UniProtKB/TrEMBL annotation:
Domain NadR/Ttd14 AAA: 8-107
Coiled-coil region(s): none
Protein name: NadR/Ttd14 AAA domain-containing protein
Source organism phylogeny: Bacteria, Pseudomonadati, Bacteroidota, Flavobacteriia, Flavobacteriales
Listed Gene3D superfamilies: P-loop containing nucleotide triphosphate hydrolases (3.40.50.300)
InterPro entries: NadR/Ttd14_AAA_dom, P-loop_NTPase
Pfam families hit by this protein: AAA_28
Amino acid sequence: MKTDGKIIAIVGAQASGKTTLVRNLTKVRPEIKGFYEGENFPKFVTDAFVSNEFRLRSFIYFHNHWIKQYIEAETQYKNGLVCLLDTFWLTNLFYLDTLKDKNDQLLIFDLIRSTAQLFPPPHGIIFLNDDITIMEKRIYNRSRQGNRDWEKRSQWLSEPMMVKQRHEDLFQEKINFDVFVENSKVIELKSSSPHLIDKSLEFIDDC
């Protein structure tokens, strides 16, 4: 079933399966285009994963990256493509607690809120929310196979757990959601589900 063009954001904590889902969905439908967070980050960004010295700068880096992707996705979906975003400009909201300075937190919060007022929200949001034990295994496996050295640290898991909780707070309506992405359809799925692809495609078609 061919769908009309639209933007679908896939969000969740680290190792929740976002990139894998985007890749698998692009294999199923020729009209689906994937946008990825990437792996080869500047050194000041990877340094920020270890310490807070460059953390604010990394927030700006990712914000700019996601805005560029979103602008391209808006052009592509108007041409009939389904654009799947592996995270998007809202994602920084879930990491605010990693900024130790409250003024830095407010600065990024205002940036996200201003962005939400400038850009139309995605047509749909798929929130991947797996059990923490599954996330732990994924983080361990990819830290051994890839270039994510920061994930090898024993204390790293506390950040994905915090980010997972912040996603739940927003998408399970424990805090005001409409301020940021009013009118977006939302579904919560487990990336470990055997029906993930079918449920995701059904959701995309309904958006």
